[in-house]
Specification:
Elements (H helix, E strand, L loop, with lengths): L2 H33 L6 H10 L3 H7 L5 H9 L8 H14 L6 H12 L10 H23 L5 H29 L9 H13 L3 H7 L6 H10 L7 H19 L4 H14 L3 H7 L1 H22 L4
Length: 311
């Protein structure tokens, strides 16, 4: 496989995963702000920008911390390179470059996701926003289902590798922002707002039911942190994403004969996560741990590019 083809497939996976995460984040923030027993207001929308590291860009656009302005910025603003529409546009461009490497179903799902935003410049009220992000989620799920029906070859593995790397980054950022920023000053840890916010975190990663299955002692921050960091069974956890990355790099190495820095980094990270205990992480500093993970994930991304000569 040509290196530019591998790069396009990898980035296709990353951009689709990023668009899906943004849609999930917006949905959860709308519910936290509008449907919570105590609407979070500016704090909720500030946290959404913090998760996506777009506070500076949003301020430069002159928007206000309201649902209307933040949702528009994160979804349909074509001048913002991280918006959902731009992610889907980049995903579609990468897909076009490797059209013959994709199944018809995978290409159709990407195209349908992109068409959700055709001629759309506004998002509307909360109900309209929820319908929009649900449409995005439906199409990205359709793409993921189509990928899982593809041949287990390099095309399949590079797409999933991009998804795994992006997923790990998103989960780490989401967990870090909740722990340090989201709870308003004066609100009690374990209070109504705190519980609503931890539930929102679980909703973003589709883990509400999983949490109830695994933990019988109610909703606690320590258990949520344990689930999102250390669970091998939750697909969006840091550990599961790391396990998937090791598996995919191994399959690519067998097929291409390309072993290198990325394989070593991924295996070391997975082994370390396998020994991680959430209580120790919290005691030593969750923020520091997650920031280190995000930096390491970025270094792994760069190593993948070098190993497969993305250019």
């Amino acid at each position: 496989m040509l290196s530019r083809t591998a790069s396009s497939l990898y980035w296709l996976g990353r951009y689709i995963e990023r668009a899906d995460f943004f849609a999930r984040l917006i949905e959860a923030t709308v519910r936290l702000d509008v449907m919570s027993s105590r609407p979070a207001g500016e704090v909720a929308w500030s946290s959404a920008l913090a998760v996506t590291e777009t506070e500076v860009d949003f301020a430069a656009h002159g928007g206000t911390l309201t649902q209307t302005d933040v949702v528009r910025f994160l979804t349909v603003d074509t001048s913002h390179p991280g918006s959902v529409i731009r992610c889907l546009d980049r995903a579609r461009n990468n897909a076009k470059a490797v059209r013959t490497a994709l199944s018809r179903e995978a290409w159709t799902a990407i195209n349908r996701a992109w068409l959700v935003f055709e001629s759309r410049s506004q998002v509307g009220d909360a109900a309209q926003t929820l319908r929009l992000v649900e449409s995005v989620k439906n199409e990205t799920r359709g793409f993921e289902g189509a990928v899982h029906q593809m041949l287990r070859n390099q095309s399949h593995w590079f797409i999933r590798l991009g998804q795994a790397v992006e997923r790990a980054d998103n989960t780490a950022r989401l967990l870090d922002v909740k722990y340090h920023i989201l709870l308003p000053e004066g609100e009690a840890v374990g209070g109504i707002v705190d519980r609503d916010q931890w539930t929102t975190i679980l909703q973003v990663v589709s883990a509400v039911t999983a949490y109830r299955w695994l933990y019988s002692d109610g909703l606690t921050p320590a258990n949520v942190i344990d689930l999102l960091i250390a669970s091998h069974d939750l697909p969006r956890s840091l550990t599961a994403s790391a396990d998937t990355t090791v598996e995919l790099l191994g399959l690519l190495a067998e097929r291409t004969g390309s072993h290198g820095e990325a394989d070593r980094m991924a295996r070391m990270r997975a082994a370390r996560l396998g020994r991680t205990r959430s209580g120790e992480v919290i005691a030593s500093g969750l923020h520091q741990y997650l920031q280190a993970f995000i930096r390491e994930n970025g270094q792994l991304h760069e190593a993948i590019g070098r190993q497969f000569r993305f250019g």
